[in-house]
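Practice problem 4.
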């Protein structure tokens, strides 16, 4: 089996899914899913980012570095919010997609654990689901580099998985992310759970159980929670048709769920640090 390489992984997604949707979401969110699904996830993440920027008290005109900028969606939003944004990504393929999607912010090629910027160059560093794709042993170096390029008093906004299991993700529990930030000399300003999608998660769990039974009986199989493609095609259409409803209801209920449920029940955590 070929060893996992984050750079090769993202380059492959950019090559395969660069034209899957106008917003360029497929290569950076859930490749192989319907466009509406990625749009729903993007809505939730943008809500969370606005909340994180408020907690971080980011001022207009602040210099922001988006690490792992991918197809440029956050850069475009930062510019629209009056921030001075710069993006960096390890894969030239992603940067090319970012340009074709109208990203006008400066872009640089480079890896998270070797950022080509001076010490203290930025007021804010954002990392949306980037470190979670770096093997655990290399995660401290990546976060150290993000801390290095922050000004004293600067803010770091980290969106990362706090649950999950796959060959290309390396999540930590919330306290694990907090401890990692502290090890780099960062002070936590707070954190909150992001992406509960409770109704949809319940539906996917039930659907996976059904497909596993089909698989053991020799009738069919199932893929991951995001890209599960029940077979035959008719069954896949039914699955995604039902899931469209559970996702819509889950997105609608998300603000209430976020207030009532502990952050650890979410799939991701949003961590706001200060240098």
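Answer key:
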């Amino acid at each position: 089996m070929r060893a996992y390489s984050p750079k090769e992984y993202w380059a492959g997604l950019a090559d395969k899914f660069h034209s899957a949707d106008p917003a360029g979401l497929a290569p950076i969110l859930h490749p192989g899913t319907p466009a509406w699904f990625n749009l729903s996830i993007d809505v939730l993440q943008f809500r969370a980012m606005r909340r994180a920027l408020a907690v971080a008290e980011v001022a207009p005109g602040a210099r922001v570095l988006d690490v792992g900028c991918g197809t440029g969606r956050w850069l475009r939003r930062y510019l629209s919010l009056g921030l001075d944004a710069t993006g960096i990504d390890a894969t030239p393929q992603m940067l090319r997609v970012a340009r074709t999607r109208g990203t006008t912010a400066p872009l640089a090629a480079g890896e998270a654990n070797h950022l080509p910027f001076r010490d203290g160059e930025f007021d804010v560093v954002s990392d949306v689901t980037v470190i979670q794709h770096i093997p655990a042993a290399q995660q401290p170096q990546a976060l150290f580099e993000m801390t290095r390029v922050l000004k004293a008093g600067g803010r770091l906004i980290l969106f990362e998985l706090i649950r999950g299991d796959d060959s290309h993700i390396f999540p930590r529990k919330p306290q694990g992310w907090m401890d990692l930030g502290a090890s780099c000399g960062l002070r936590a300003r707070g954190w909150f759970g992001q992406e509960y999608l409770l109704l949809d998660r319940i539906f996917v769990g039930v659907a996976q159980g059904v497909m596993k039974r089909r698989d053991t009986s020799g009738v069919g199989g199932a893929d991951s929670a995001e890209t599960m493609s029940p077979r035959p095609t008719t069954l896949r259409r039914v699955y995604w048709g039902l899931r469209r409803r559970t996702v819509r209801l889950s997105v609608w209920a998300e603000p209430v769920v976020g207030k009532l449920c502990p952050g650890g029940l979410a799939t991701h955590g949003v961590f706001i640090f200060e240098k």
